[in-house]
Amino acid sequence: MAALVVIELPTFYASLGNAPRSADIVNIAKQLRQLYSCFREGQQTCPEWRKKPIVPAEKPRIGVRELSREAIAQKEFLGALNKLSPQNKANVIRSINVRKEFGDMYIRLLWDAFLRAPDYHNIYLDIIDHISEAIGTDVAIAAFNGLWTEYVASEAWIPYKEAKAFAVAEAKAEYDEFCDNVKARKRALASMNAWITLTKYGIVNTATLLYDLIFADCNTRIKSKEPSKTLEVLLELLLEFIRVNGKAHGPSVGAELPRVLENEWKPCASEFPPAIRFKIYDLYEFVGAPRDGLNVPKK
Predict the structure, then answer these.
(1) Hey, which of 94, 127, 215, 280 would disulfide with 269, CB 3.0 to 4.6 Å?
(2) What DSSP character marks residue 273?
(3) What is the pLDDT of residues 215-270, one digit of tens each?
């Protein structure tokens, strides 16, 4: 506890007598006003930031915004696709209100669904029939042919992003990049199977062309001895295409593959990493060549 300070009463009165009187205070105030500008009459002493009016921030609008007719149609269609299941497909498809003026939008959204959910391809074919009744079969076919043109122009069957993602994942062991690679591979397989499904259903006639594109790309990369992850996925696409369609593909599909496998791909297979080498062996076996004839390196 602090000690008490005792001031004698005479001392206190003496000090009080020496305090400045009112006249002295007035003189001191005048001197301060002359010395310091902030005390002069008319001087604004308020800081600049306090002079500005405080405007409350605009709150984000909560509620339903006004949507265009196309945005409403898109929202309704996506909502129906999200509810879709094998059990309720009939009721959901009947509930889709197709607006004729947005036919191309419906087809593009449905194509994205083909890529996301390969197991629902047969159900999506029923939705195509439902949409075609409203917009016309010719319009629907033209829209899918337009998507095919874009697919070929962008070489979408080649998983460029997949190859880049895998290279980064192997170099830096980044799990997210590896996941991107897996997604790209699945998307490549889904797009190929989607075109096969649409071809079988008679909507487009692109399966043979797609096979020729994949085969030609694989052939070019193998001849150039390019051991990339892209080549590995393309060989997987080629094998999957033959498995889905069987061994009889018509005059142009698969006719050249056995000869190329025997004379060109198999002899150089040992020069590639195991992932590519054994996919070549799988192709060679699947098209009818005996595995005993393969030049498999010893472990």
Answers:
(1) 280
(2) -
(3) 888 999 998 887 777 888 889 888 888 887 754 444 344 567 888 888 889 888 88
Burial class (CB in 10 A: 0-12, 13-18, 19+), 215: buried
Q: How many residues does the chain have?
A: 299
Nearest to 271 by CA among 223, 205, 208, 214: 223
- Between the alpha carbon of residue 109 and those of residues 78, 114, 144, 204, the distances in Å are 8, 9, 11, 17
CA distance 289 to 251: 19
Type of residue found at 154: S
pLDDT tens-digit readout, 165-219: 444 445 455 566 667 777 778 888 888 889 988 988 889 888 888 888 888 889 9
DSSP string for 140-189: HHHHHHHHHHHHHHTTTTS-HHHHHHHHHHHHH--HHHHHHHHHHHHHHH
Instruction: Give the global pTM.
Output: 0.65
Distance CA 187, CA 190 (A): 5
Domain locations along the chain = 70-154, 155-299
